[in-house]
What does this fold into?
Amino acid sequence: HRETYGIFARSADAGLTWTKKSVMDDSERPNPDSPVHWDGQVWRDGDLWHQLIGGTTGGNEPRGAAWLWASPNLEHWTLQGNIAPTIESNGFWELPYLIPLGGRHVLMVGQGNPYWIGSYDRKKRLFTPDGKEPHQIDTGNYYAVNPHMADDKGPAGERRLLHAWVTGPPSPTDIVPYWQGALALPRVLTLEGDRVWQEPIPEL
It folds into this structure.
């Protein structure tokens, strides 16, 4: 958390080589306790690109925050604010994701796996949860949720897929000290009442 940057990388030869450019500077932090870039989710809405960044409100009583940035070209980013100021969740949010699901919106956080179902106002750029208490995607050694993948195989023309990291104990060898888990089986997400329903992807 001491110093971070947002880097824009582009390839003109199908990924063989890349050019990189710093587009979010550490001096643009939302506050001293929240990095300018941390676990970003990027999507396009109309003429603007949006990016949701993990972080905190900072100060003496910090809450988790999902900082929204906007850009017309992926290079010049402007901070819009914390999309979930009414959620009272202590600490620092990692991997925030805002996804449409079943006619609603779901805000998910990777660390601790909480999620809230609610509505998202695109004009005000605010997420309003249906309730204050979160649900959990998984209560096991499950971390770094990523629900950003979608395809056209769902009943309404879109299927939302979740990937994640199953963590484990430290590696027994010093040669590879960070072998601490594996990728989870991909899961299909749907909305059932006030819960996110999950099933293993049937292609398995």
Summary: The longest strand covers residues 142-151. The chain has a mean pLDDT of 92. The radius of gyration is 18 Å. Residues 114 and 135 are 6 Å apart (CA to CA).
